[in-house]
Prior knowledge:
The chain is an alpha+beta fold. It has 2 domains: 12-123; 126-250, Immunoglobulin-like (Sandwich). Helix content is 44%, strand content 28%.
Amino acid sequence: MRLTKLANWFSDGDLEKYKQQAQATQQAQAKLHKIESELEKLSNDFQAAQKELAQKKAQLQINEGFQIELGETQLKLQKVDAQAQRYKQELFERQKQLNSLQSQFKQVQQALTKSQNWLQQIKTPIEVTEINKTLPKQDFDTLWGFGIITPAVNSITTTGAIVVKGWVLGKKADAQTLKVVCQGENLLETPIELRRPMVAQQYPDIPLANQSGFEFCLAVAGMPTKTMLSLEAVLADRSVVPLCNLVLTQTIESKDT
Length: 257
């Protein structure tokens, strides 16, 4: 049987990534301001070149009778035209750079927003509001017993994950794995094999009592306002026994805390 285990922890690497994204946002803003300033200067130069071009054309019309001056003016006019084209091309390239920077800046902002939302989800307090036994009466004889060591009712986590520890002791067949189910979907499955000395003391005549423990960590960041997790034991004969439901609820921290 393939067993999987799910964990999601907040790490220093995630915080460093968040800082790098914030720094990248500041750098993108600085580049954006610089390009906008250069773009404004090029636009002003282009307007000045157009104005000079219009003046040269007017002067050319006035001095049509002077061939030498006309030739010189035409040469100047060609230079002004060429310069205007260069300004126009440079203006186009700067606009492309500005559009590219704006796109990059938007992507950085989106990534930063996602990081901030993720951090907020991790810090959202999650309370264990209920632990309800679901073992059917007809299955009482299948187990010697079971128990949830942690978490306790009304316990709260602000780490984005919940750690569940407990034990299951099979009677007719050994309890082999524990399944965690939410809305009909299997979230994880973990072996029942950890040491539980207190269970061995309670059931000294049962050899597997000391290896009846289980433990798993489940990410709860971003969960709905209220979520119910169902814990089920899978026995050696492939039968599945419902044990209990854990009800998790998002809560709002008091301003006094």
